[in-house]
Amino acid sequence: xWTKWSLLTDLYQLTMVGGYVKEGxxxxxxxxxxxFRKVPDNGGYCVLAGLEDVIRYVKTLxxxxxxxxxxxxxxxxxxxxxxxxxxxxxxxxLWAIPEGTLVFPxxxxxxxxxxxxxxxxxxxxxxxxxxxxxxxxxxxxxIHYAAQGDPVVDFGLRRAHGPDGALMASRAxxxxxxxxxxxxxxxxxxxxxxxxTHAHSWVESFPSELEAFRAYxxxxxxxxxxxxxxxxxxxxGVPNAIKVGKELREKGYELKGIRxxxxxxxxxxxxxxxxxxxxxxxxxxxxxxxxxxxWIIESLKRQGARIDLWGIGTRLVTSFSSPALGGVYKLxxxxxxxxxxxxxxxxxxxxxxxxxxxxxxxxxxxxxxGQMRGxxxxxxxxxxxxxxxxxxxxxxFSHVFKKYPRHFAMKxxxxxxxxxxxxxxxxxxxxxIREHTLTSLEQLDAAYKRFHNPHTxxxxxxxxxxxxxxxxxxxxxxxxxxxxxx
Length: 486
Fold this sequence. Notes:
Elements: H1 11-22, E1 29-36, E2 46-47, H2 51-60, H3 65-73, H4 79-86, E3 93-96, E4 102-103, E5 110-115, H5 116-121, H6 123-146, E6 152-154, H7 162-176, E7 180-181, H8 184-190, H9 200-204, H10 209-219, E8 225-227, H11 233-250, E9 257-260, H12 265-278, E10 285-288, H13 294-302, E11 309-312, H14 314-317, E12 327-335, E13 341-343, E14 360-366, E15 372-379, E16 390-393, E17 401-404, E18 409-412, E19 415-419, E20 422-423, H15 430-442, E21 459-462, H16 463-485
Parallel strand pairs: 6-7, 6-11, 8-9, 9-10, 10-11, 15-21
Antiparallel strand pairs: 1-5, 1-12, 2-4, 3-5, 3-19, 12-13, 14-15, 14-18, 16-17, 16-21, 19-20
Helix pairs in contact: 1-4, 2-6, 3-4, 6-7, 6-13, 7-15, 10-11, 11-12
């Protein structure tokens, strides 16, 4: 599965790397930051996911003879560059924020400091992995939040974007807070609990709905959940489920649940609950599916729906309402004299696309209650202002700043993953990552988690970093002016 990823890249990555090698830049070091500019669905936060796959990719990235033969046939690349690829191994440093951490726009989520060709080469695949999994983990987190403690299961395999997309979606959804998946392969590979019921075809394959329910109960008496909307939910499906439930009880088993997959879920769930309770099945759960997402769940909750478990498919694994995370990978520093990294900046007429220069560390600020109060970018070599108050500035405007008091606790978020090409990070289990997500969400005020007009979380620059950014912008503007006047 992983060896095929060596050529999973844009052609221009290879042409640039070939150019770097040809121009004598193979040993010039650079720093790139991976970050995103906007939270999907106009939300207040993202959940970082995908790092484990990035680690595996970087660790195993090699070019086979078959890869090299294909590249040679393209007629673009020199023998020197093909020899470079033949001996390729990542030798740089990679720092990252651990998976399951809540993250915000314009923060360095992954920092790659390496020889320029190496740092450049991994861009496309890194973006492919991180953008998708962070997108789905974030969507899952929002759905989990809307469910208000009810379990949620990923039912999206059949609607996912291909087999690899389905696996990554199931993994990311679990990290985001989803409790289980219908995807059996994801269960095998990642250890995610697998869940499922049956389809309408099961019911239609028997002479009657009652016979179909009885057959399913015979085969799976310990885990019997019946789909009750094939013909008529309230006059046929639920009464037949209750009848089979009574027969199961006589044999020492219990009807675990019923599933609603169509119709007015608020009304049907309330009526089904009454019928089940009156028949003595107070513990039988009601499962709902049918193109659900966080907004629909929130609405059903407001309507008093009696749903105990939510099965979410298409709108989860495709992030249907916001199908892409605009993560980018930008050069922020370059070794120009062989002694130290020189900060670099991307200037743009669009302020949102102006980058934050230099090698940076990201520090999260916590108040006395352990609540997240803002993030601050410092230069990597900058000492932290521990034990004293300080100002942190808006990324563009000097008159907009946030003052942090001395008693706030600080936590650096970026941790070393690769040092000199060697893996130094112990990857946590997917269950530990999921728990980290849920713990992090408890540390974020509800104002940032609401679906409509969430509060904006502050990501600021240290005074020193802000001054360097302003200086570089002025120098860039001056250079543009001198060109236009020449």
